[in-house]
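Input for the complex:
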Amino acid sequence: MRILIAEDSRPLLRSLQITLRKTGYAVDVAEDGESALWLAESNPYDLIILDLMLPKLNGLDLLHRLRDHGQETPVLILTALDAIDDRVKGLKTGADDYLTKPFALEELLARVEALLRRKRGMRNPNLHVGNLSIDTSGRTVECSGQQMDLQPREYALLEYLIARADNLVTRTEIEAHLYDENTEVFSNVIDSAICTLRKKLTAPGQTVFIRTRKGLGYVLEVRV
Amino acid sequence: MKKSIRSQLTVALIVSTGILMLSGFSALYILVERALLKQFDQTLLTKTRLLTLFPEVDRAGINLEFTEHSLPEFDRPDMGEYYQLWLRDGTVLSKSRSLGDASLRPKFGTEARPAFQNIRLPNGRRGRAAGVGFFPSSELRNPAAKEAAEHPFAMGLVFARERTDLDHLLAEVRFGILTTGILLLTLTGWMVSRALRKGLAPINRLTQEVEALEANSLTATQITTDHLPVELIPIAVELNFLIARLNEAFQRERRLTADIAHEINTPLSELRIASEVALKWPDDLEATQNLAQQTLDSVTSLQDITCKLLELARQQNAVETDLNPVNLSTLWKEIRDLYAAKANERKIVLAETIPAEVIVKSHSVLLKMVLSNLLENAIEYSPSEATIRCTLSSHQEGSWQFSIENPNTALCTADLEHLFEPLWRHDSSRTASKHSGLGLSLVKTIATRLGIHVHACLPSPETFRMVLEYPVKNTSGFDQSNCYPA
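Predicted:
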């Protein structure tokens, strides 16, 4: 999942970037409204975390422009403006959630998770695909009742493929959703990530497989 | 308990009307009573005069020409008429049979001005009597005339009559007046109450509108003057001004609270999240070290804001300041030396026009805070290699003016009125500057305490100037156009 954080406080931005990356998200950052708008219009983000008081272009104007341009990316407003008027204005402009500073890191992560789930049309944080059970809130995967040892990016890749199960997922889509701007994606990076994931999915009685469609991408299939 | 205007006016109007009615009806009663009494007296007098015609003096003596039979009304007490006739020496010559053993009180006037009196009649009822002294008709005209010249009268006659009918009539008049008065007073009370309710309705409506005012709805609220009478329009207009001023104050307070919240919440968030990240991934030493540095920066920023907010609150609530002679030239040199390194670092030149000695009446510590703040801002917001011009001039009677001028890169005229607002910053996002936006508020507050007027001016779009002027009124005549406050 790829997230854009638009926040002018550099220390906060850095902390959020570390947190979300370590949690397994691809994270891009913008310190002002104009850069944030440019990034949001150039990349298919799964979520935008938006501060309201941004230099050059304030958060509300940015959100307005995004919605005017038909952007449906969920937006979580993260701001020190805690008045009811500000919250109402933010939500009415098109934000999906509103969190005021100071906030708890776990709450932010839970809201991010919930918004991403909502984007995929899911209510239950637990997914069951074949013999895999996925806890999206704890970001853990069990295979036939056994906990799988997955790196954050591997988890993100598996979750992305499961969300699109039985559908073709192109390399470009994987790249766009799982890698941020700062990560240089070499040609074999995705192949190697898929390969690693496949190895971890080869337990006895495994019913979930990742099939390669040559030249096109990958399909996650469940075989009974 | 506080009285309402309505109840006070109701009581006052009813009491006033009552007093007026009482006076009016009393006067009317007196007039009616006099008229009736006059009429009664006239009848009494006519009969008295008639009776005086009967006695006649002839050579045989006094001859009473009438008998009780010819005037039957004097026969019995129940007929209600009485007379008694005296000689001048007090001898009773004759009296009516109706008097029985009783006697009337001899009180006589002249024939032209008879003496009237209210009396208690022998039958116990109230009566009225007319008494006249007179000369009976006489064949001895000349001797009688001669005697008349020596004595006012020869005989005295008192004629009395019951006044029961008159008293009844007067009682009816009194009853009529009293009943009418009570009725009119009741009607007046009802009408006054009704008229006041109607008349005071606009006040009630105004009260309701004022009662409906709430701090949150002041922006949209204006008391409508269309339905108000002319007397209340000035009040409504003044209330609208007050509402506008209150609204402005509330907005300012809200803005300040929001700004404080932002200023404090952002570093608090930075601190909290940095700590949480460090605790969540303690093995990541590089990240932890970076977060420690961030934490220190955030704490420093928070400390700076808190100290300045506290200083601002302290200065706003400070009691009167003792002003002493301060050498402003020396003070300025100290401040300049303090910031010299910072200015040199950015190759900023200070061009000063400061006299060798200017003694002003002020408070050295507070004045130092003001000047330091202005110089720090000038250095901070000037581009590298810029020139900052400082000018100090003193005038007669202890007045002085200090100005500090630096190149303007960001401010416009509209910004000037916000410069002294707490936490206002040209950059609305507050990212670019390390400043909290409290410095100039502090400058303004302290300057006001010291009796100094601070202006922020843009004499040209490229130049920003801060002016301190003592005393408050413009003594030096500097150009205040494009300055705030003007």
